Amino acid sequence: QENYKMQTEALKKASKEREKKMLLDSELLRAKRELELLREKHQKLYNKVQKFSIFKKYLEDVVKISQFEDVQEVICCYKKLLSIRKDLLQSQQEHKEMSEQAKVLLDQYTAEKEAEILQYKNEMAQLQRSDQAQSDMVFWETRWANIQNMTAEKTRKLGTIKMAILSLFQ
User: Fold this and answer.
1) Contact criterion met (CB below 8 Å) for 71 and 61
2) Residue 167 and residue 170: Cα distance in Å, rounded?
3) What count of other Cβ atoms lies within 10 Å of the Cβ of residue 93?
4) How far apart are CA 106 and CA 11, in angstroms?
5) What sign does the CA torsion over 41, 42, 43, 49 have?
6) Could you read off the pLDDT of 117-158 as tens digits, one per residue?
7) In the prediction, which pLDDT does 146 show?
8) H or E segment at 70?
9) Phi then psi dihedrals of residue 68, to 5 deg
10) What does the pLDDT read at residue 137?
11) Which residues of the chain have pLDDT under 70?
């Protein structure tokens, strides 16, 4: 019985150790994969560093021939210039929008004033027609007065002729 108990314990222990070993193996496999991914990432970053190292050399040459004291100062100046450029672009966009709004307002104002001008032209045309009607009225009144005068003259002559005929008849 003791032998069976020891055998059972040994089997349990072996089972636990197998589980532990499998767990360690899976952990090791995961760590190897992670290591491989890190190596790939390291290689990519290394390649990037190699690729951009010419820019480091370029910046160092810029520092040598300029008023800058170190590369960080050049980078800081570049960042300031980018910030200023961004602000200028934003300001330009705002001015463009304001200009477009002003143009819309100007168009509206121009349309209103053109409508006013048209209204004044119509009023002026009506006044001119009224002036024409007044001058026509003077013409026709004069003509009417002439007709009345001629009628009066002819009536007077007719009266004179009637009187003469009446005198001759008597």
Assistant:
1) no
2) 5
3) 10
4) 96
5) positive
6) 999 999 999 888 888 888 888 888 999 999 999 999 999 999
7) 95
8) none
9) -75, 150
10) 87
11) none
Give residue 143's pLDDT.
92
Contacts of residue 162, defined as CB under 8 A and 6 or more positions apart, other chains included, come to none
Give 60's contacts (C-beta < 8 A, 6+ positions apart): 71
Q: What is the pLDDT of residue 151?
A: 95
What is the pTM for the complete model shown?
0.45
Sign of the torsion formed by the C-alpha atoms of 131, 136, 139 and 144: negative
Say how far apart CA 145 and CA 152 lie, in whole Å. Answer: 10
* Distance (Å, whole) CA 107 – CA 112: 9
Instruction: Tell me how far the alpha carbon of residue 2 is from its chain's centroid.
Output: 92
What's the rounded Cα separation, in Å, for the pair 170 and 168? 5
Tell me the CA distances in angstroms from 163 to 35, 102, 153, 157, 168, one per residue in order: 150, 89, 15, 10, 8
DSSP letter, residue 134? H
Residue given tokens 């002439």 in the structure block? 146
Q: What is the pLDDT of residue 102?
A: 95
